[in-house]
Design goal:
Structural class: alpha+beta
Number of strands: 14
Largest sheet: 9 strands, mixed
Low-confidence stretches: 1-42, 49-58, 64-72
Strand content: 15-25%
Radius of gyration: 24 Å
Length: 401
């Protein structure tokens, strides 16, 4: 029986339908009767570096089998010149999870203002009741969709209630936009460092980091940060593909690196001004999740997904204003911004994410969540003042909370 769908087959570990994306069979009556030998799976692992048992992938099949290549249905620009594939993306009621759906628009779209508002069932996204379930999507920014290719766009949206004025639960962008408008005179710049774990599903609700034995642990932390090599930089294909996709989408993507824990990675967004920082971060998270999905991997952003002597994941924010970037801007940081941050420490922590106390322990390159601190070139403090800022006496600082 197939290990995934339990359909009876002969001598192979899994069937094509369960192991390959976007494969269409000529006869629906035979859709579970076409199989590939295990040797194909081994060859897939050798040539793609994807170590997920004996699962084949669509790209591998496209490269090696003319039969399956003829059965793929790619997006054709020749027959659909006036069609735009728009993927509407929004944050649901959790304030953390992304949702999306596709609209086929029978005209070219060149500006976000040309896009229509849309609706969805808010009772299925923790944002409404079934008796009044309509939530409106307002397109706010868009970029090319590097996954679908030509004539395709990603559309980041805000959610609104039926009056089209009241922001829906999870629409924090509405608030952020007002803050950025008020702070416009200070010209705020951001550089965001998003850490994450690549994880594989275990059972129906569990997970474990990619490359770790289920329930087991690799060698202690030390050799993995900015590492090179199969046993250290685990899952590099995903962050590399993600980087290329974000650049193709026109996002302000700055770089990637392997992080301190095995299967942990980081990417950077910036320098981005004002609301663009958040928009580009969420779009990059969407692309990362979609790319990992194609590799049968999930993205984990939890502050402390693996308990014990392992680093957690944060999203460090590097920040500057026109005042800190001026000559002697260091004085503005020390005399004005640091005291303000210290006075609002508890307020900031309350909205910096659930379970953050598990990460901010004073260990693993963090400061204690209970106390505010800052230091020069220190990664064990709430606020780090980088060496480059000290040298030039102006620039930015990093909020590591």
């Amino acid at each position: 029986r197939c290990v995934n769908c339990q359909v009876v087959k002969n001598g192979t570990k899994s069937c094509v339908l369960c192991c390959c994306y976007c494969v269409f069979f000529f006869s629906s009556r035979r859709r579970h009767t076409r199989f590939l030998p295990v040797s194909w799976a081994r060859r897939c692992v050798q040539e793609t570096g994807r170590v997920h048992g004996d699962k084949q992938y669509s790209q591998f099949l496209m490269n090696h089998s003319s039969k399956f290549k003829n059965q793929m249905i790619p997006i054709s620009t020749q027959n659909n010149k006036d069609i735009t594939y728009a993927e509407y993306i929004w944050i649901d009621g959790s304030g953390q999870n992304l949702r999306s759906k596709t609209m086929i628009i029978r005209r070219k779209i060149t500006r976000v203002e040309e896009l229509d508002w849309w609706t969805y069932d808010g009772s299925s996204t923790e944002q409404a009741t079934t008796t009044s379930s309509e939530i409106f999507l307002k397109p706010v920014t868009m970029c090319p969709d590097p996954l679908r290719g030509p004539n395709s766009i990603l559309v980041l949206c805000e959610g609104y209630l039926q009056d089209k004025e009241t922001p829906a639960l999870g629409n924090f962008r509405y608030i952020c936009q007002k803050v950025m408008e008020e702070a416009g005179i200070h010209d705020p710049w951001f550089g965001l460092e998003q850490e994450y774990f690549l994880v594989k599903n275990v059972g129906t609700t569990g997970f474990w980091p990619l490359g770790w034995n289920n329930g087991g642990f690799p060698a202690p932390q030390g050799p993995y940060y900015c590492s090179v090599g199969l046993n250290k930089a685990i899952g590099r294909t995903i962050p590399e593909t993600h980087m290329m996709a974000c650049l193709k989408a026109g996002l302000k993507f700055a770089g990637i690196n392997a992080e301190v824990a095995p299967s942990q990675w980081e990417y950077q967004i910036g320098i981005a001004k004002g609301i663009d920082a958040g928009d580009h971060l969420w779009l990059s998270r969407y692309l990362l999740t979609r790319i990992a999905e194609n590799h049968d991997v999930s993205i984990n952003l939890d502050p402390k997904p693996i308990k014990g002597d392992w680093n957690g994941s944060g999203c460090h924010a590097n920040f500057s204003t026109v005042e800190t970037r001026k000559s002697n801007g260091m004085d503005m940081i020390i005399r004005n911004y640091i005291p303000l941050l210290e006075a609002c420490h508890k307020e900031h922590i309350s909205v910096y994410g659930e379970n953050n106390e598990q990460r901010l322990t004073g260990k693993h390159e963090t400061a204690s969540i209970k106390e505010f601190s800052f230091g020069e070139a220190s990664r064990g403090t709430s606020i780090r003042i980088p060496s480059v800022t000290l040298e030039s006496n102006s620039g930015y600082f990093e909020d590591r909370r």
